[in-house]
Design goal:
globular; 4 strands; mainly alpha; 357 residues; 5% strand; four-stranded mixed beta sheet
């Protein structure tokens, strides 16, 4: 039986004199210590890794009377079947016979996240690095073929774990609702009241959509349990596969500069850049994932302390909203973004003057 191509596991070539001139001086760094063997996380609940704003938005959407059952029934009756047939006819189904090396990495990610049954995986002929989780009743994952050319096997496992995180969290349903709302807003753009309401709804759903990607990045990390793998995968999404020309410490510095440098006008421009985006920029995803990987929550999870799917008691919507508000408050209080720093200074001045009254 012919063997399938394996995802690339590159060794960085020695830099040429030209590349040294282009790259300039690099910061010396020691090779990172080899991470411990990843531990399976039996029965892990998606609540363990979901961003608080993602959890709260999902809980609120599920509270809308009739939204979830109606959307699920409509889409699963037609959309699920149509999507699966489209990829069954136009892509390659990955299994132990087709792309077995990819399939083994997929199974490994699923074992670590305790995902069963295993969703079908398809490989589509597309040059860009991307993947997507689709379907409601019987979800499946589509991986772009460009990912095999750009990513190492470990990085590919991170991407597959990211998509399995979407499956565990049940994001597909509300991502479908978001797409319908965006299409409807284009139709109703000529109706002032209706378009304004839909714009507000679509903006809120897009904010949730971006936070859901941060949740899935955390799942990808848990599917490898090596932060450097996730960070390098996100760096490649920004700059491609020329790893001999890139430096992770420099890219982290770039992320810090994006978050902290400039003035209030720059902060407003950054907010405008995100308008209509379903994914945060790679530098933001990298910074968020690094913060989470260095925090106590990640350490507790890999240490075996996390909520499980078998637990029947679910936190209330109010608890989820409080947790989400706490997350936004913490980011506001610690962010070095010029706009948030200016707002904090204004609030401090208001409190100071109020104290003198």
């Amino acid at each position: 039986m012919p063997t399938s191509p394996r995802p690339r596991s590159r060794k960085s070539p020695e830099p040429t004199a030209r590349s040294r001139r282009l790259a300039g001086p690099r910061r010396p760094s020691l090779p990172p210590p080899r991470p411990p063997r990843p531990k399976p996380l039996p029965g892990i609940s998606p609540r363990a890794f979901e961003h608080p704003a993602d959890t709260a938005a999902m809980a609120a959407l599920r509270k809308v009377p009739g939204l979830e059952p109606v959307a699920r029934k409509l889409f699963s009756a037609i959309g699920d079947r149509s999507l699966r047939l489209a990829f069954l006819g136009s892509a390659v189904r990955v299994d132990q016979h087709q792309f077995p090396a990819v399939f083994e990495r997929y199974r490994k990610a699923a074992r670590l996240l305790d995902v069963h049954p295993l969703p079908e995986l398809y490989l589509a002929q597309t040059p860009f690095v991307n993947a997507g989780a689709m379907g409601l009743g019987k979800p499946f994952i589509v991986l772009n073929s460009g990912s095999l050319d750009l990513l190492t096997e470990d990085e590919l496992q991170f991407i597959l774990g990211h998509e399995l995180g979407h499956v565990l969290s049940g994001h597909a349903l509300f991502k479908t609702v978001l797409r319908l709302v965006l299409r409807l807003s284009l139709v109703l753009v000529s109706i002032p009241v209706g378009s304004a309401a839909l714009f507000a709804l679509s903006a809120a759903l897009l904010e949730w959509d971006r936070k859901s990607e941060l949740s899935a990045d955390r799942a990808g990390l848990l599917a490898t349990q090596d932060p450097s793998v996730g960070l390098s995968a996100l760096m490649k999404m920004a700059g491609g596969g020329h790893t001999d020309e890139m430096s992770l410490p420099e890219f982290l510095e770039q992320a810090r500069e994006y978050e902290e440098a400039g003035n209030v006008a720059d902060s407003v421009l950054k907010l405008l850049h995100l308008t209509g985006q379903s994914h945060p920029f790679p530098v933001l995803r990298l910074a968020e994932l690094k913060r989470w990987a260095e925090g106590d929550e990640y350490e507790r999870i890999v240490g075996g302390e996390y909520p499980r799917r078998s637990e029947t008691a679910e936190p209330s919507l109010l608890d989820d909203l409080k947790r989400s508000a706490g997350s936004y408050r913490e980011r506001f209080e610690t962010s070095q973004d010029p706009l948030w720093k200016t707002l904090r200074d204004l609030l401090d001045e208001v409190r100071r003057r109020a104290g003198k009254l």
